[in-house]
Structures
1.
Amino acid sequence: MKYKIAVIKGDGIGPEIVDEAIKVLKKMGEKYNHNFEFTEVLAGGIAIDKTGKNLPEETLQVCKESDAVILGAVGGPKWDSLPGNERPEKALLALRKELNLYSNIRPAVMFDILKDTCPLKPEIVEGGMDIVIVRELTGGIYFGKKFTEGNYACDCMEYSKYEIERIAHQAFKIAQSRNKHVTSVDKANVLETSRLWRKTVEEVAKDYPDVKLNHLYVDNAAMQLVVNPKQFDVIVTENMFGDILSDEASMITGSIGLLPSASLGDNNFGMYEPIHGSAPDIAGQGKANPIATILSISMMLKYTFGLQSESDCIENAVKKTLSDGHRTADIARKGEKIITTVEMGNIIVESI
Amino acid sequence: MKYKIAVIKGDGIGPEIVDEAIKVLKKMGEKYNHNFEFTEVLAGGIAIDKTGKNLPEETLQVCKESDAVILGAVGGPKWDSLPGNERPEKALLALRKELNLYSNIRPAVMFDILKDTCPLKPEIVEGGMDIVIVRELTGGIYFGKKFTEGNYACDCMEYSKYEIERIAHQAFKIAQSRNKHVTSVDKANVLETSRLWRKTVEEVAKDYPDVKLNHLYVDNAAMQLVVNPKQFDVIVTENMFGDILSDEASMITGSIGLLPSASLGDNNFGMYEPIHGSAPDIAGQGKANPIATILSISMMLKYTFGLQSESDCIENAVKKTLSDGHRTADIARKGEKIITTVEMGNIIVESI
Ligand SMILES: CC(C)[C@H](C(=O)O)[C@@H](O)C(=O)O
Ligand SMILES: CC(C)[C@H](C(=O)O)[C@@H](O)C(=O)O
């Protein structure tokens, strides 16, 4: 079988980390006899520089004709003064919308070897932290009507029931394969969209009697993540709340440099990218950690291609590499030997 | 001079904690020869039970004719199934809007005696944490157009320039009396309202050349509060971001039971309330900590009445009481003697 993958390296450290991820995937192809076919396309700042557009038509076309997309990161100070629609981030939003990637899955896991970098006290995260945040990604205030008129501006948070249903199903299904607990986060004491959200999630919950459901207001969720993150299994929430809470959660793990993400549409189509950004300050220096991107590849094998043991194989290779003590600069403690992006990639490839 | 104060005890622990705050205020009146006049009015769940309305017309009238309002807390499970407009929280929102309380000031301070309850590692909060969050309180998605139509719902985040200007001025003025640093939080890479916000804050900043200004996206701010809260002095942000970030920040201090807040309008009019909620689970048991409400009184003396030394006097009495080791249940460590709400009030009154 042939797997068609669109590759968007993007800006900053994007190219370096994606190169390592592709090396890993090629190795997987050899080992398991899969045919991964890569097509590189442009998006973000580099696309602006080379074509004048943050998301060239060809990029969208190639992504649509692929089975999955790998994305490094987009954006950087160079393009920060451009107007809203022309910025690199806009390409990311357009990709999500055009590819109908409505379901963003962000594991917030504390890696044991990074326990020390967790900002919370040890007693709070004792025994580890393992949350999956399921964020609605193509609705809400990101894509609702918006305009500025003189001294007035407006952004509409809009939701239709079917948008809430499909993301809720996703969350409950994921919970079924885990600890069977979904926490739905909204602001139902203030927002109409949240009241529709809560009602719809409760309806969907009836299809999953084995999964426990509770609701939290978003302000309370932001607090609970700090004082008692272990209460969570799967968190499902709308686009902007998901943006805020998933970043807070990933930071709380202390492992943000290692965290992957998947953005899924229908029929298992998906875009895979690290949680961290383009880190322009260290771009091109071989300092970036490719692990979050490599683990994104592992998510791709599982979610889009259904290759569970291949996915596990990458995860195990990463775990082994880490427990053997190999460290890029971001995760090294004082005195530990630091290796480069490429060296990290090579070592992971070797342990596959 | 006579100071007219409307008193809304509200629900849950509201009545108990407000009673102690009033005791403190009466003592202040005696000591400094001020005439504080109190008028008790209903709002929230208790108002629903007694009058059928969460915010009776009389309450609004009395508040408007007063110089300041003291509020305990509103809400509880008893009224949670009521429709949006009839809920206790709606009374709070209506009070904010009707009294034009556009500027919500929430100190997030780590109390030295509560250092141990801070969820962050000691090295992150070493030397203390002292942030003021200035939240816009009468605009944005809380009060924009909203509706549900069948399977579709919509909430509009709306801002006009003058709304941003007045809250920005407030933030810069507060920063001038502190460490001269304002962090403005928005989501300007996605929202039109945020772009208007950022532009306006930058314009207002020109009037305060002695204050440093920086901008953060809300998702990044949620992360920075966890990993490096000491970078902040004054944070200014729109209504919903302020809701989320101020709760996160207050939880991070570990001192949420002690934190007061002020909601200010024009001409120093203000409503004062503790950050914590109505805590229905411990209501009527004498377990509640009145300190956050008593410190809210201290904010009232400062912000509305301009009585700086009276305000300091309350703050010092609270500090002395705490350093003498008096503890309500919420702040007691294992083995420490626990006193009641009323006892805590009495001790603070005595040390005034
Ligand atoms: C870059 C930005 C538009 C984006 C978002 O807000 O969704 C990012 O923060 C993310 O979470 O992927
Ligand atoms: C009760 C609720 C409507 C309110 C808000 O969201 O503003 C509360 O969370 C607060 O922060 O005062």
Note: The first helix of chain B runs from residue 14 to 32.
2.
Amino acid sequence: MIPNSNIKISAIRGSFLDFIADPFFYPELETVRYIDDGLMIVSAGIIQELDTYDRLKPKYPEISVTSYPGMLILPGFVDIHVHYPQTEIIGSYGKQLLEWLNKYTFPTEGKLKDKSYAKKIASFFLEQLLENGTTTALVLTTVYPQSVDALFEEAKKRNMRIIAGKMLMDRNAPDYLLDTPETSYEDSKKLIQKWHGQGRLLYAITPRFAITSTSEQLHLAGVLKQEFPDVYLHTHLSEQQQEVELVAQLFPNSKDYLDVYDKFGLVTNKSIFAHSIYLSDYEFKRLSEADSNIAFCPTSNLFLGSGLFQIHRAKSEQNQVQVGLGTDVGGGTSFSMFKTDNEAYKIAQLQGQNLSSLKAFYLATLGGAKSLNLDDKIGNFNAGKEADLVVLNPRVTPLLKLRNERNKSHSVINIVDELFALTILGDERAVKATYVAGNLTLLAH
Amino acid sequence: MIPNSNIKISAIRGSFLDFIADPFFYPELETVRYIDDGLMIVSAGIIQELDTYDRLKPKYPEISVTSYPGMLILPGFVDIHVHYPQTEIIGSYGKQLLEWLNKYTFPTEGKLKDKSYAKKIASFFLEQLLENGTTTALVLTTVYPQSVDALFEEAKKRNMRIIAGKMLMDRNAPDYLLDTPETSYEDSKKLIQKWHGQGRLLYAITPRFAITSTSEQLHLAGVLKQEFPDVYLHTHLSEQQQEVELVAQLFPNSKDYLDVYDKFGLVTNKSIFAHSIYLSDYEFKRLSEADSNIAFCPTSNLFLGSGLFQIHRAKSEQNQVQVGLGTDVGGGTSFSMFKTDNEAYKIAQLQGQNLSSLKAFYLATLGGAKSLNLDDKIGNFNAGKEADLVVLNPRVTPLLKLRNERNKSHSVINIVDELFALTILGDERAVKATYVAGNLTLLAH
């Protein structure tokens, strides 16, 4: 279908790679779609079609083509757990989770009460995402509604798929960061009505975690989720042992950590639980039944000494749980999905497991999209999806060039190896360009 | 002392930071020397003096000064375990140690039989070191003497402090990589006579590890070490559990893995043992008594899933063992000491320990120099030492700039925090210049 001529239409030529199924459950090479010399037609921000250049070009004889020779084009990356207010405290020294919150996080979140400051940080944060090829993110904010407005306003300017919500916290934090069950309910409701479904923006009800919310607050979060079943629920789960023990003390009537949320109706198919390191079999089973989702945050789990997420348990045949990747900046140490994949691989290796590059990039693209129930809109290159793309240079540094000399031919096996080299050696320099809904952000590196 | 006028003399101005003691054993801030506005006088590659600019400049009224405003100048980094032939297989997928050797390492080492190929790789490798601010390295080669010549020839051109030696392997490897006890002895002896003490070059007798050397070969390595007590002994120790078990089978009469080497006189104050992850208390005690040294290789230990090195055991009061850092490329995933420190920090965190940035940079500079018994020549800025320096830009990326906004003043506490940010967020882009024995390599980034 050739679109109406007054709609903006563009064409991108290059090597395209995306996923059509989950490589954790199907033979890997059957889950990947690779077109060595492809042409993608984009109209009004939507992928119209993608095929080989030779087959498609004759249909569009007049179209001007943007070519990326030697590059690999993937779906834009999806980061399903990241704290924008913590951008400036990335790489802060010396603490594990609970102390880290007190020493670094809370004072920094307090600064975002000032909306103009929040806007400055939100803008910087979104530019960092784009620099790293990330086009969709599920983002934590602060307790202040204006910090949510700041993020959504900046995201709207860039037409990015951002999901976020006001942080709910009514205890165990400094006074200046506390709301109440009632204000958290009212403020969240107003924000949902204002932002959910505005352009590409979506809302997530966001209790920080069980330690900083009373039962009353979690109850009202559940009420809100019932009133707006279409919004997300985003929180932390079972990140460190000390935290798990404290949650057990605070909620003595809950069977386990997940059950705290479950009792309030917060364990749903649109719920995303970050970390999920110390889960029992029962908790995995319950997440699987509820079709809930886990954000695996490798760089953060190592940096805060949290522990080793067992992805093989989430990706088991019996208790399958959808998993995506979170950079978890500022507990995480990078906005880069390459570095996130790098440390995901290392966490697997420490447990005697392998995480292939196809699995790793699946998590960073279609896996992330599925975790957000957005795989009808993003995550791969199916016609009709939004044209979020990242253009990668697998030979951007002298070391990557030497390392990838063995991949002279463009067989899929070689491409898979190039992607692995990117996960181990790559950073934002390898991101040549990022497309958001068809619009190009050309990057300086 | 103003040197003779026909000797090349130069002056560098900037913020200098180095160590004068071990921060693992002394109050950290007493082990570091920081000069905010310093001047270093270098003559014939040797540090003549370093003091504040105000005090020193009047002594050298005519001297032309190279200034690095906003930069931090540290001693050149010391990498005490790295395989130059494996540069091209960095980031190769999916194996743990023993399989990794068979699948990737051995075939690649075979290519270095061709000396011109070895020269090409050696040259690339040394440039990578300089790009990353590393001026001294203890390097593994291959079984072929010409691969040692290739490295030393290239290092000599650059006047770098490189220590290396022919790999000894007479079993459990492909035929094309095997020597014999006799040829390994003879070839090593010739190489020692040719290279040890030539300019800044030094020799290390290098049995790969107990699995690939027979008792006869280890015996002759010990004989050689006695004949040339001044050379180094460099090998691997206790990297993975499967390896430890195999060594126990191969050497049933040895008490433990270290004892295999000890029986042949290879546990000395100039011995460097890479990894040392699964050591008993007895082995730590023996290493301490013998004044031996450990190369801690964080990125490799995670990438190959080897395990978590317990630096707190090596740095205990009772059994103190000197420790330096090894990038261990190609099992390691980066030539960067920042990235190495980053993952060292994470390994400590996973064990509930903290590794401060001062400890981390001590390991990368004076700690490494002490591990090589070279602290009379390199490792800090004492007058009379060789002028190996690295000039760092702690604000080289937008993210580092934002992160380091909190360090507006140049107090030592702020500098320590900037260094920590570099270990977490830095890479070779932060290396503005590297000086090798006073000679400047200005880097493009």
Note: Residues 342 and 424 of chain A are 5 Å apart (CA to CA).
